[in-house]
Structure formats: C-alpha cells, structure tokens
Amino acid sequence: MDVKKYSITAHSFYNAAIGGDIPNCLAFDGVSNYVYIDNSPLKMNKYLTVEFWFKVDSFVHGAGMIDNGTEHPDGIFTGYSVFTADSNSIIIRFGNGASEVSVRLDSIPAGQWKHLAFTYDRYKNDDNIVVFLNGIVVKKGDCLLNLEYPFSYDPYGFHIGKYRSAANDIFFKGSIDELRLWGYVRSNREIKEYAASEPDTVDSRLKGYYTFDQSSGNILEDLSPSANHGELRDMQDSCWQLSYARLMTVQPSDILFRRIVLSWDCSPDYHSFLWTFRKMRIFLLLCRAFRWET
Question: What is the pTM of this model?
Fold first, then answer.
C-alpha cells in the first residue's frame, strides 16, 4: 500500500468529516477544578433556555455539570442546576428557596458526547419545563414556582464542573462544550436544528455563550453581548482538550468518502503523522457514527 497516499487520503477524510479543525472543550477531573462565572447577568427567572454538550466519564451523585444556585443548610435549593446521579442518570433541579422541582434523565451512557437543552417558561400552566436530549424532547415537567437565585455574590455565582451546597462541593468528572444561555424559550426547531451551528452573537436574548475554543489560559471567553467571562480555577492548560461533540452531528451525506481502507503496515516514518490524530481516537469515533467498510 502507498503509505503517503494513505496519509493524504486520511487527512482529507478528516477535514471533510469535520469541516475544519475540531474545536476544544474543557475536561474536568472530578476532584477540584471548575469554572466560576459571575451570575448577575444570568439570573433569568421568567424565561430561559440552557444548551450545552457533555460527556460523562464517571457518574457521581450530585456532581455538578452546571450550577446556577446552591443548596442551603436546611436542604432547600435556590436557582437551577444540572448534575449527575448514580445509575447513569442526570438530574435538572429548580428551586426558589421555598419549594423545588427536579427532572431526572436515566440511561445516559458514559463516555459519549450528548447535547442537552432545557427550557423554562414561568407562565405556562403545565409542562413549563421541557428537556431535550440530542434535539429530541425526552421529558416535560410542571414547575409552577417563581425561580429565584441566591443573593450572595460569592461563593455562589454560576459554576461549570461543580455543584455548590452548604455541606460540600461535588465536582464533575467529564467534559463540557458549547454552553449557551438564553433569556427566552427556544423553540423545538431552534434547539434541534441549531445545536451544531453558531448563534447570532449580537442577539440581545443571548445572555451567555461559551465555545470553549481556547487552547490555554485561565479565562473562559463569553462571546455573548454580556461579555461575562469565566475564570478557570485549579485547572491547567491540559484541561483544554479536543472536542468531538459536534462531530456526532455530521450527516453521512456530508462525507466525501463512502469507503476508506485502513492498513497497519505503515512505515515508521509515518507513525508520527498518525499519532497526531490523538492515538486514532478520531477514527474510532467516526466508526461509531458511520457505517464503514474495511
């Protein structure tokens, strides 16, 4: 087999599949690292939509994926939060310090990228919480309460990768990408069709937009009109990692090659090239997403 030809073909397939460079995400260790964001512009209590990509490495009960609230010493919750639970589950929790509502999603696979979105409409009489997984409505719930948030500026705020409670902090082990927070209820079509597209960053309804596309540094940039940047805490540059989240949305019709033949007879001269694909993980992920012939 012509190794050089194989290398060029693989690189072309790689570019065709993703339409350019793979964006980054943040990988959280489940021990101590997280992102802190001032939640002052993010206290929507009438209408909201939250969207993000996630990959869970370990399901620990109470580990915060995103958290815009806190649990008080008496157990009462204020704000909203998304956290992992045992048995491959995720819980979305809403509260106002007096009452609360939770929605639970079960059978979430570990190690796989998924897109999660949920909307809240204070003025609907029923089903005013709608939860989407990969653009499909999977749960609805009644949450007839006035959503409130903690009053203290710090140590509360909006956290990514940590759940804040009076007892302790519980950290998320996994990856997060492409977080968007809106001050209105996004439609089913908007959530399904635009999960892998860039939003209009001058839209005043976009209250927070974090692409995670940096590759170093301790600032998570907010591309929304709020310019409400986040601060990475106890995170190293190694936490910025390649993201394969939106790769899962590429349709087979977008791929230029229907068949690729892999050979492990490559000469040592080309091993370094192949290892630039991060130990071939990109090919393994593509094999899961598409039907291959070998």
Answer: 0.78
